[in-house]
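Any chance you'd type out a single protein's sequence alongside its tokenized fold?
>
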Amino acid sequence: MFDALKITVILLLGIWFSNCEAPGHSEWQKLEPGLEWAQFKSPRKAEFGNSLVTVVRFDPAYFEANVYCASQFDSVSRTVGEWAQKLGLVAAINAGMYATDHLTAVGFLKNKKHVNNPRLSKKYLSVFACQPVDEKVPPWQIIDFGCQNFADWKKKYHAFSQSIRMISCEQKNVWQQQPNKWSIAALAIDQKGRLLFIHSRSPYSVHDFIDILLQLPLFIYNAMYLEGGPEASLYFSSGGVEKELFGSFESGFFLNNSNSHPWPIPNIIGIKRKAKR
């Protein structure tokens, strides 16, 4: 009896999620089919800045994602806007953090035969996977080591970017509280399978920022951290709207909100329109 009731509740919730949005959905602005963006006022005021959270949402029926590395081209870092111009992208965001050589990702990172970092980190418990080998798997996903075995998926996608888990597959905040704060770039998958690029110039501890995301009408399934501080970047251009967002504050490094330009980064996750069939 309990199991039957539980299954009924889950099915009803699924129908509800597929047919409605949470309060505040009118803040979304449609730029083209399958692409929307919104800026949400954070329920928690930041120490610096306007406390806005920018989210760009992509439907996999219209868009595809890929991973791009400076090391596969000319080893030259670029701003996200420059990357988008070079590669003909609709949008771009950091593909995780990078080492002191300003080229190599700190986690596993590859694009087909090009491997930027072959090492799967035991510390970073999520991997963004895209460019599927066939249509038997989702077009993109965040593989959560807490509920999935990465070995089961490694041969099913061509591109991967590993980073730190923020929101688990159980929609839980898994980041310990800490005093440090950053501007933040993050990646999420919502409960309809759409990809979310997320950016906040206003600094928060990551734990607090996750709580903010879970309060917003985003219906996040899981999420991962990409970058913090001045390097945290997001670019998109569609429907007459073009934005290049970049961070500033980072505890122990850049202790103010004065950064006035996007920083070059070596690795990105980029979005292109799917070819019309």
Notes: Residues 1-26 have pLDDT under 50 and may be disordered. The longest strand covers residues 195-204. Residues 27-273 form one domain.
